[in-house]
Amino acid sequence: MTVLTSLMKRVHRQMPAPLRAAPLVLAMEALRRADWLEAPAALDGRTFSLTVEDVALEIRFHCANGRFLPGPFDGRETDLTLRAGALSYLRLIGGHADTDTLFFQRKLSIRGDTALGLEVKYWLDAAPRPDWLGSVAQRLALLFPEPRAT
Asked: What CA–CA distance (Å, rounded) separates 81 from 105?
């Protein structure tokens, strides 16, 4: 565990759930408004949880009329949960790994509605990415080094 991940864990434990969700949800909504991200119709009305395991971060959001919104924060199970480390998410976002590879390497787990999980998987793998996104994700990945084999 790096100093950064240790610090992030402590901070996330103290933050209320809506505040933890805000940066990602705002970023997704900004990408949607810029026409760089479009949610498939199958996501409408569904709830999601993204867990970034190494920094103890859970982000809950839902999709309504194609928009990304924070919540629910009432403790209910979400329709779909994705779990991975920060490095795996960054590789996925940057287009340097796909969901199948991460899943079969056991670096990504998916729980919940199977049909929705497949829809999200296809969407994540096929979604066009602006050129700058891969570069930004690659730079951020330097903050989360690959764990050493023991």
From this structure: 18
Chain segment 103-135, per-residue pLDDT in tens: 999 999 999 999 999 999 999 888 888 888 889
If DSSP codes are grouped into helix, strand and coil, which group holds residue 37? coil
Coil, strand or helix at 24: helix
Residue 117 to residue 107: CA distance in whole angstroms: 16
DSSP β-bridge partners for residue 60? 49
68-71, long-range: CB < 8 A, 24+ apart: 68/25, 68/28, 68/29, 68/32, 68/39, 69/25, 69/29, 70/18, 70/21, 70/22, 70/25, 71/18, 71/21, 71/47
What is the C-alpha to C-alpha distance for residues 111 and 102, in angstroms, rounded to an integer?
14
**Separation of CA 128 from chain center:** 16
